[in-house]
Amino acid sequence: xxxxxxxxxxxxxxxxxxxxxxxxxxxxxxxxxxxxxxxxxxxxxxxxxxxxxxxxxxxxxxxxxxxxxxxxxxxxxxxxxxxxxxxxxxxxxxxxxxxxxxxxxxxxxxxxxxxxxxxxxxxxxxxxxxxxxxxxxxxxxxxxxxxxxxxxxxxxx
Length: 157
What we know:
- By secondary structure, the protein is mostly helical.
- The chain has a domain at 35-103.
- The chain has five helices and no strands.
- It is elongated and about 130 Å long.
């Protein structure tokens, strides 16, 4: 007997899809579009917290071209600019690395060793200062005014 396979066409509503996305952890990353990934990665690069990858720029330009956001000429022009800048940056980084590696590989010239400094003698323990004596308390002011001195009386008008 032959086995027959029965297929049933099922349409999923938006709420069903939302429920599936919430129920199965990690499925969003599997179902997410490459254009969305490219946008996220390029945004991180623009903020200085990620590394530039040329494939993200290509994907984003393809997305814009497919949606009619840019024409073919602009698509090609932008990608050529980005690829040229990326190649130039890669070349500069390679030159810097080669220069760094070249400096490290040079043989060091023999320098006379400097004499080791003599160790300092152990510091003597300081004596604690004697406690200070308390100052006598000031006399409290009385509420009675002192009488003015005889020679310096104020004139009243």
